[in-house]
């Protein structure tokens, strides 16, 4: 059974983006970029970024599929990128986009939970990367097996939270905690079953 992992960056106060959706204020730092983002999770970097960094041919290590919400996908569309993760199988969850702007991107508009359960049940392959956002993460919370949260050393006061869900307690266990010289902390949690 494949795992669904919500791999996301957040501020100390738990926001993944500003109220406008912007997220370009997170301090990356050289060692964090090389050691973690490129060294361990290169497939989570969008294809244009991989090309710019000269790591196009680096194999995927954790994921072969990405699921993202419409707002997350729109960030790339505004820059003219219709296939942001060409090195992965791509799904976009949207009720407003009826036809994909790119043949490499499949639009999911029906029962998202059922679609994710089908993806997870596939034999072989790597895991499934949930790239955001908060509404989609809330919809898929019952299927999230792992949380990888990159907590950046900033406070932004308000914005888009990790999850936009009703109150409820879902237990996860801390698997790993790492710190980097730029002050970023990466926490990895596994769902308690």
From TrEMBL:
Residues 107-185 form the Bacterial bifunctional deaminase-reductase C-terminal domain. It comes from the Bacteria. This is Dihydrofolate reductase family protein. GO terms for molecular function: 5-amino-6-(5-phosphoribosylamino)uracil reductase activity. It holds the Pfam family RibD_C. Gene3D superfamilies: Dihydrofolate Reductase, subunit A. GO terms for biological process: riboflavin biosynthetic process.
């Amino acid at each position: 059974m494949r795992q669904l992992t919500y791999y996301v960056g957040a501020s100390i106060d738990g926001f993944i983006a500003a109220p406008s959706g912007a997220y370009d204020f997170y301090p990356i730092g050289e060692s964090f970029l090389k050691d973690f983002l490129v060294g361990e999770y290169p497939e989570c970097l969008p294809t244009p970024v991989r090309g710019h960094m000269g790591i196009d041919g680096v194999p995927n290590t954790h994921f072969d599929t990405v699921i993202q919400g419409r707002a997350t996908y729109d960030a790339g569309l505004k820059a003219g990128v219709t296939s942001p993760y060409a090195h992965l199988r791509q799904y976009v969850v949207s009720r407003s986009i009826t036809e994909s702007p790119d043949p490499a991107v499949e639009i999911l508009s029906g029962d998202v939970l059922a679609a994710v359960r089908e993806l997870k049940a596939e034999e072989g392959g790597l895991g499934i990367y949930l790239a955001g956002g908060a509404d989609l993460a809330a919809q898929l919370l019952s299927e999230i097996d792992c949380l990888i949260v990159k907590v950046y050393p900033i406070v932004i006061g308000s914005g888009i939270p990790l999850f936009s869900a009703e109150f409820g307690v879902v237990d996860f266990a801390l698997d790993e905690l790492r710190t980097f010289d730029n002050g970023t902390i990466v926490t990895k949690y596994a769902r308690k079953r």
